[in-house]
Amino acid sequence: MAELLYVEPVGGAAGDMFLAAALDLGVPRAALEAALATLGVPGFRLEVTRAEASGIAGAHVEVVVEGPQPHHRALSDIQALVRASGLSPRAREAALGLFERIGRAEAKVHGVALEQVHFHEVGAVDSIVDVCGAAVVMDLLGWPRAVARAPELGQGFVKTAHGLLPVPPPAVLELLRGVPVQPGGPVGEAVTPTGAALLAGLCEVGVAPPPFTPARVGYGLGRKRWPDRPNVLRLTLGALTTAEGGRAGAHPPPPGDAIYQLELNLDDCPGQLVARALEAALAAGALDVWAAPCTMKKGRPGLVLGALAPAAAREAVARALLAETTSLGLRSWPVERIELARELVEVATRYGAVRVKVGRLGGELMGAHPEYEDCAARAREHGVAVKEVMADALAAWRAARGS
């Protein structure tokens, strides 16, 4: 069944609050920390505690940094860290897209070229962990559709590395340009730049959530205490339902949930640009991308670039494909798809823990496949072939379910 993640910035939104809410929701801490350990950023650890705000119990996450760290990082430095990491391809592209989004906002605010942007707060270890951690969380949840309530941004002033700035800070407003927001809120910075990037880059903001059945709820607590509201970010994960009350997938999706296929033909575009276009489309919200060879007019060899995108991301994906290629246009049309309900099950193998993705249709088991990135990591650690780890993981999963 298709799932929905409903994001409610009750007291605001920040990267650490998102991670905390995800852990309170039930995202496995060990899997999150294992993915973040591949970033190659030394000297940090997650400190997770239980706390309460206005009688609401939840999780609080602190990224504890130990040892000397760079005072600032260029966008290219952060991109290199992410590209060299062991994050899954989709999580890696999502993190890169979020950092590029932040970089472009900073460049616009400070009137400099993107290549000249140096991050201060966002370049710190805790912010890198927050952004990459959010991408990992979405990956661990199986990339559900994410819908967020329009946030209140706060008011007053906040002290930053650039001096005293009005709330919301210019970078936050730039990140949320074109995104529904609510004026007012608590006196203070309710939405941080990282929080704004996560809302704008991972969610459909200000869209009324379709009917869904809540299954799990998580609360992430912020550091500050507001006098008029609990400073929490709430995540609710549940199964999408149709207007008739049936499970999503039993009927064609309503227009607002439409999936679009976008395609364009290329016969004069270097291969490096094709690869970049596919990365950019994923970062813009595409669900899948591909390139296939074709024969064009006058017998010219060419490529068909394709992407699947939800209605909310169609324009952004189209812009990414056109901006990164030599094409002067593309075509798109709505499509229907049957999507399996997905569940990640961790199994113990001879080589270590591996997650297995299990797919079901209407409750019927359709298949199980070990996560490649997990298997590749275990194979590197033990010097064996990836297929050996995959076979062991599948055998362990079958043994666990008694088949």
Q: What can you tell me about this protein's structure?
A:
Belongs to the LarC family. This is Putative nickel insertion protein. InterPro entries: Ni_insertion. It is a single chain. By secondary structure, the chain is an alpha+beta fold. The chain folds into 3 domains: about 5-240, no CATH class; about 255-335, Alpha-Beta Plaits, CATH 3.30.70.1380; about 340-400, Ubiquitin-like (UB roll). The chain contains 11 helices and 20 strands. A 5-stranded mixed beta sheet has the order 11-6-1-13-12. Strands 15-16-14-17 form a 4-stranded antiparallel beta sheet, with helices on one face. Strand 19 and strand 20 form a beta hairpin. The chain starts with a strand and ends with a helix.
Helix content percent band: 25-40%
Give the amount of beta strand, in percent.
Answer: 25-35%
The number of domains is: 3
DSSP summary: helix tally:
11
**What does the largest sheet look like?**
5 strands, mixed
Radius of gyration: 22 Å
Low-pLDDT regions: 242-256
Strand order of the largest sheet: 11-6-1-13-12
Sum up the overall morphology in one term. Answer: globular
Structural class: alpha+beta
Mean pLDDT: 87
Number of strands: 20
Query: In whole angstroms, how far apart are the ends?
Result: 23 Å
Organism: Anaeromyxobacter diazotrophicus
Protein name: Putative nickel insertion protein
GO molecular function: lyase activity; nickel cation binding
Pfam family, one: Ni_insertion
What's a concise summary of this model?
This protein has eleven helices and 20 strands.
Core attributes:
Ubiquitin-like (UB roll); 3 domains; alpha+beta; Alpha-Beta Plaits; four-stranded antiparallel beta sheet; 403 residues; five-stranded mixed beta sheet; 11 helices; 31% strand
